[in-house]
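User: quick one
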Amino acid sequence: MSLWVDKYRPKSLNELSHNDDLTTLLQSLSSYHKDLPHLLLYGPNGVGKKTRCMSLLQSIFGSNVYRLKIDIRNFTTPSNRKLELNVINSQYHIEITPSDMGNNDRIVIQELLKEIAQMEQVDFQSSSGNGGAASTGLAHRFKCVIINEADCLSRDAQAALRRTMEKYSRNIRLIMISNSLSPIISPIKSRCLLIRCPSPSDEEHLALLKKIVDAENVNVESDDILKKIVKESNNNIRTSVLMLESMALSNEFNLKSTSPIIKPDWLNTIIKLSMKIKKDRSVPCIVECRSIIYDLLAHCIPPKIILQELTFQLLKNYNNSIKVTDENILDIMSISSTFDERLALGNKPIFHLEGFIAKVMLALDN
Amino acid sequence: MQDTTFRSADGKLISIPLKRTKNSLPSASWKNEPTYGININNLLDSINQNENQSTHSSSGPCPSPRHDQLWVEKWRPHRFIDLVGNEKFNRRLLTWLRQWSSVVFQSKDTEPSIDFLNRPVKKILLIHGPPGIGKTSIAHIMAKQLGYSIVEINASNERNTQQLKLNLTNSLFHDNLFSNPTCLIADEIDGAQDSGLIKLLLEILHSDKRATLTRKNSKKNKLLKRPIVAICNNIYSHSLERLKPFCEIIPLRKPLDSAIIERLQLIAQKEHLSLSLQALKDIIISSQGDIRNCINNLQFNANTNARDPSVSHKDFNNTWFKIVNSIFQKNLHLDYKLQFQNLTKTISLNGNFEKIIQGCHTLYPTMKYSDISLQKPALISDWLYFHDLCQNSLFQFNGELLRYSSIVPLVFWLNFSDLSNKIDQLINIPDFRIKELQNYNNNICNSILSNLKSPFINSLSLQLQLLPHIDNLLSTDLSGLKNLPLKNSIFEKLSSILQLYNLQIKQLYKDSGPDSKLILSIEPPIDDLVILDETRKREIITKRPSIYNQLLAKHEEIKIKQKQLSSVPIKRKLAETTTTTTSDQSSSKRQKLSTIDFFKSQYNKISTTQTETTNTTTNTTTNTTTNTTTNTTTNTTTNTTASSATSLSDIRIWVRYTEGFSNAVRKNVTWESLWE
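Assistant: Done. Structure below.
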């Protein structure tokens, strides 16, 4: 008994639901399990990159890859600061999120990867099993290293990765997972097999939800509500399943087509903020918006996500607010992209988010 | 009044003396008296008396404002009654420390506890809270008040493990002939470099635990007979994880502004400072509830005033908030150009561009200025970006661009200065507060994440997607649900979620106010992290406790059920193979025992654990197999000790009479007769 997200997560390649082409590709990869290229999985949030990666490992190494334990590694920076990193590992793979360390991710890449890479893994099973492998002594095996959020890796860290990938390719295989391809330097891209994980189509997504609904005995009045969930989740499967679960629970397993969609609080706050911007374009409103933004920032919502959600909410037309014309949409998009850059280059999110709001208000006024 | 007499049946005269009420005066020292049972008026009178004496004695040489001593030290609270704010927690702290009195001072008046030495259940007191609210002071006062002498270990001490161990054993286990019994205060224990200290503390606690089980104070397993108070800022620090189960955790919060003002007024009065109420309030706002900082500021202000008013005034003029205010004020009588030059000069002289620009940014929307639509705020955002870039050069080009930041305030002056802005405004930059909150929330998130063995969740998706929904699920009101099987299945699910994510439902203080009540909520506080909406924030106090209450009841029920289910096969196993006992856990030794020996040791163990504290740590590792390990040997991991505490409910020895036969006679059989 766990959350539906975990319960209905595919555990092997055969169970994967959408994108059959990709699944066949992975299956063909796993059939040559003595050799695996470095992989770079990319695609939007919540489409199952990690699920695919784990099920690929499962098909290569067996279900022992799901036996996980957490280690805490300590690192020391050149400036003598001590850092801690959580490392999830199984017998066959190790998983790190170097971006947790911010600017110090280079040290993690250098030390941890080298340490793993310099150790040879020995495959006792296949060396004792078949006589063919035994003739060459112990069979050799590689270890997989999963790097999460590879797009957040700093340039230094990526440069450190370059050589390691080639030099120790006998002992390790990297599987990198990232949301977008653009922050990754081209030398790394050229060393990897790039695999794009696209979002599921609306039909696939709907079928997935229907399967869960049937398995959990939820009464659904019509498919409209499921379609609504799919739409609201922005094709993010994790969000839609979580949404479905909390809605099912709060409606006593009877989903009507009019049941309200449950959204996380931070999203609701951003929606309210966008309404406020459209409704009242004045300096006092800016003060109010500022306190809301401060509140969001204090709750650890990344400024980039605030900007992104806010932009998309501003583009939507609601009945009770002013109409956003096509010109306005262009303006808002260009302002948003400018401030996205500023957020990335600068250090003071509050300045830029507030500047974004002021400029959007100005654009809406004209 | 006379004694009553009466004659008994055999003719003797028996007199019964009147019961005399002892009219002992309560002495001021709290060491020999229980806290209640004292006339509160007497107590207050004695305090007043003491106060009068002390003021009389100090009235002669009045402390001059320019005293050599730091006021923070001078006005550090010295008595319980001096403490500001957090009354409820202070009292909790005091009760905990008083519970040690029976073992330390052999006093008889404490409440009986489950512990055989009458010590409190949790052996360490952990105080946490933001800096500068008097955590260290409270600990010191409490210890002093109850007659302990204090041994303090803080970050300045030797961190060498060997040295530390010597220090600890010296102060905790050896009696000192000349001074009072010691109370150990471990200050600032939440640092990465302090893992040595925490390891030592854990060692002591574990050996104490073993010693309590055997009730013997051996050389190897020493009984802890002195209180330990630990202080930290960040309760969710990773290094504290293992210590927490042994700790009575007390959160201290920032005291109310009114309470601080009272204290500051007292200090100002005693130091012959005349400060307006507004000035005091300003000090408090600028230090954000940090009392230590407040007192420091007070002294600084007093000193500057005392020396030379004109000089101090000039100094004061150059601080960043003065400059910020002057940026928004246009002077009618000065030439435009001259004013610009003056401003340029003061700003470049001050050099604290970062603060000045932050101040300008916080202040400008509240100022009066002329504008068409929102052109000026939009314009200034570009300049703020420019400033941000210049600041960033600090990390890349040795800050060569920093000096160009000085232009940004001038842009503010050009756009936002107006004649009608005359009164200086108070600037309250929330950046620091936001940072603190961010840290707090991040710590919660990380603590959940570090316990979670799922490769599919990263911190961002945990924060943005998973936790809001978990919070939502847990707070769903199910009382109106009629369908019972469905309800039960939902509860089962929720309780498994609680276990999976290592969440607990606990009684916590949610409100920072003085009348905060204990209410049920989730620990770690994911609701703090997740909920932004005001109306839903209120629900935490109003609606949620009852929902959690229901959930908690079901949760415990389910746990007990699980325990029973898992213990059934073990019982059966015991019946079949009674000759050997399997001990599969790593630490315990394997021993072959006969049936009777096994039962005997079980019986001994139960009788010892019965008196032992059955603390309700909800660690539900139902490793009942470990509980069948017969000998109470060295189990060092926390896990096994925790389960041995819960083992009481698991271990039952059943003896069944075969009734129904003619020779079955029911009689009392003692255990001794069974194995002799």
